[in-house]
């Protein structure tokens, strides 16, 4: 499946927040989702490119990929 085709169950807006806030907010938000649901995290912090896959590896959630558009990152994570 192409990352562009992913339809998230929830969207988390972290634009304007610097590291580590996007990851912190992701970890809080993912707890509200059911297993298998997908969260889209929107951020303009370039650190998210490395931080989110590392966080997913650490927590066991599934990193689905990332799209970068107009300086914004759209990162997709499936809850374990």
Give an account of the 3D structure.
By secondary structure, this protein is an alpha+beta fold. The chain is 28% helix and 31% strand. A 4-stranded mixed beta sheet has the order 1-2-4-3, with helices on one face. The longest helix is centred in the last third of the chain and has 12 residues. The protein is globular, with a radius of gyration of 11 Å. The mean pLDDT is 96.
Outline:
With 80 residues, the protein is α+β, with helices and mostly antiparallel strands. Helix content is 28%, strand content 31%.
Q: What labels describe this entry?
A:
80 residues, alpha+beta, 4-stranded mixed beta sheet, 4 strands
The helix-strand sequence is EHEHEE
Structural class: alpha+beta
Low-confidence region ranges:
none
Overall geometry? globular
- Tell me the β content: 25-35%
Counting H and I runs of at least 4 residues, what is the number of helices?
2
- Indicate the radius of gyration in whole angstroms: 11 Å
Distance between the termini: 18 Å
The main pleated sheet reads as:
4 strands, mixed
Output the strand order for the largest sheet: 1-2-4-3
Number of strands: 4
Mean pLDDT: 96
Describe the oligomeric state of these chains in a short phrase.
Answer: single chain
**Helix share of residues?**
25-40%
């Amino acid at each position: 499946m192409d990352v562009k085709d992913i339809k998230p169950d929830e969207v988390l807006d972290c634009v304007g927040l610097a590291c580590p806030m996007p990851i912190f907010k992701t970890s809080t938000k993912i707890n509200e989702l059911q297993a298998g649901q997908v969260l889209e995290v929107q951020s303009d912090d370039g650190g998210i490119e490395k931080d989110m896959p590392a966080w997913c590896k650490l927590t066991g959630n599934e990193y689905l990929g990332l799209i970068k558009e107009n300086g914004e990152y759209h990162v997709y994570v499936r809850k374990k």
